[in-house]
Design goal:
By secondary structure, this protein is of the alpha/beta class. It contains 14 helices and 15 strands. It has helices spanning 45-57, 74-83, 102-110, 127-130, 146-158, 184-189, 195-201, 218-232, 242-249, 256-270, 298-310, 315-330, 335-342, 346-355, and strands at 3-4, 13-14, 39-41, 64-67, 92-96, 111-112, 124-125, 135-139, 160-161, 170-171, 175-180, 204-207, 239-240, 275-276, 368-370. A hairpin with an 8-residue loop joins β9 (160-161) and β10. It starts with a strand and ends with a strand.
């Protein structure tokens, strides 16, 4: 039975109809302006292995470093780690290190005393104090100024903070989950990031693959966003045509999950009807097929026409499964050669092989995470 998690992580609600493991996203703010992912699935084999890694790391108190491109779901992963940890009953704080000036970041992290600087009219707790006994997510940690890196390192080592304008340290117990979309090793080599802080963060590292490299997540995510935005816009059930599904899977998604969500939202806003075709999506980055010599498909067309006359259920799946099975057998079950023959990525092929039972099923059922802001 699948479990739907709402905001109360301690009391999950059983739902036998929705195959989702979800953080409630219904009250998200500034959704359209965000570059972050608001949902993430664990359907692709790559994502399933990621989920297994998260579930191993989460119960510990280890510092975690999440590495991935913008829009891949780094904050979602951080929230899921917190939800699965012993700290889940306490605060989850999140701070974007690239969004504030050095002075403001120091105040936000460590707090300040009244009169510590111009405008400090009252004392203020920093995120370390606010998230005491909980988890603190530091996004874009690679953009943290060097001066603050030294202060942050001391906090991590001593487990205490000193507010701006104070000399009195205060003990804190916070688990740090950091994230970055840059190569911190290169930043260390360029002396833009402290080596000792990097080693402090690099205890448990999670690499989030771009959506292009986990194609098995694309269609489950697309269907999820169709449901979310379809309900918001008052549409009846909206479905994707086989051509639309193929277009979505073959798109590079440089903006990752966030771009996919925006594409679904935009399409539902401008396209009438409850069945979307490839022409409804304005995907300028779709990979153009390479020119290939003409081949005779007369016998194939004849066979397909006969099959259409029979009109069996799930016709497209029958055709797709047959093509993949024949190609897989022709290539002696070599995935690399089969993917090359079919001109698809190996990840797409592997997803299809698992879908049609040609590989042993591994991992858990797909899950969806929502981001609540």
């Amino acid at each position: 039975m699948d479990t739907v998690l709402n905001r109360d992580f301690d009391n999950p609600v059983e739902d036998t109809t929705a195959p989702l493991l979800a953080f409630d996203e219904s009250q998200s703010r500034k959704l359209a302006l965000s570059t972050r992912a608001t949902a993430m699935v664990f359907e692709d084999p790559v994502s399933r292995r990621l989920l297994e890694q998260i579930e191993r790391i989460a119960p510990s108190d280890a510092t975690v470093l999440v590495i991935g491109e913008t829009g891949t779901g780094k904050e979602l992963v951080a929230r899921h780690i917190h939800a699965l940890s012993k700290r889940s009953k306490y605060m989850f704080g999140a701070l974007n290190c690239a969004a504030l000036s050095e002075n403001l970041i120091e105040s936000e992290l460590f707090g300040h005393e009244k009169g510590a600087f111009t405008g400090a009219l009252t004392s203020k707790e920093g995120w370390f104090e606010t998230a005491d006994k909980g988890s603190l997510f530091l996004d874009e940690i690679g953009d943290l100024p060097l001066g603050l890196q030294a202060k942050l390192l001391r906090v991590l080592q001593e487990r205490e903070v000193v507010k701006v304008g104070s000399r009195q340290p205060k003990p804190v117990d916070v688990r740090i989950i950091a994230a970055t979309n840059i190569n911190l090793e290169e930043a260390v080599a360029a002396q833009h990031f402290r080596a000792d802080l990097y080693y402090r963060f690099n205890v448990a590292t999670i690499h989030l693959m771009p959506l292009l490299e986990r194609p098995g997540d694309i269609l489950p995510l697309a269907r999820h966003f169709l449901k979310i935005y379809g309900e918001r816009l008052g549409h009846d059930e909206v479905k994707l045509s086989p051509g639309a599904e193929l277009a979505l899977v073959n798109y590079d998604w440089p903006g990752n999950i966030r771009e996919l969500e925006n594409a679904i939202h935009r399409t539902l806003l401008v396209c009438p009807g409850n069945r979307l075709g490839p022409e409804d999506f304005k995907l300028s980055g779709v990979r153009a097929p390479e020119h290939v010599p003409a081949v005779s498909v007369d016998s194939l067309e004849t066979a397909l026409e006969r099959l259409c006359e029979q009109a069996p259920p799930k016709l497209f799946e029958i055709i797709e499964e047959t093509v993949i099975r024949i190609a897989f057998g022709y290539c002696e079950k070599n995935q690399v050669q089969t993917a090359k023959l079919l001109d698809i990525s190996r990840n797409v092929l592997r997803h299809k092989l698992e879908l049609y039972g040609m590989l042993q099923q591994v991992g858990k059922r797909g899950s969806v995470l929502h981001l609540e802001r």
